[in-house]
Amino acid sequence: MLPKIYDVQPAVIELEAGDHWWCSCGLSGHQPMCDGEHTGTGMRSKKFTLTERMTVRLCNCKHTKTPPYCDGSHVGLEKV
């Protein structure tokens, strides 16, 4: 069942300014970024743009209400 919970903790990573694509399905082999594994699932990646280099907390449980950013929705979820 999608989205697949990749992890129950956010990915805290530093990203360069520019466009990025967050994995919303949990199938990517390059979490938390999209690698196209969602093809055929009906799900889509989430494009987001940073205006400067910064550290971000990206959702890994895929249940955030504020994609691509972690909003704490992982609390109480289990990785399967």
From TrEMBL:
GO terms for cellular component: cytoplasm. Pfam families: zf-CDGSH. The keyword Heme does not apply. It comes from the Bacteria. Residues 10-44, 46-80 form the Iron-binding zinc finger CDGSH type domain. Transmembrane segments: none annotated. GO terms for molecular function: 2 iron, 2 sulfur cluster binding; metal ion binding. Keywords: 2Fe-2S, Iron, Iron-sulfur, Metal-binding. This is Iron-binding CDGSH zinc finger protein.
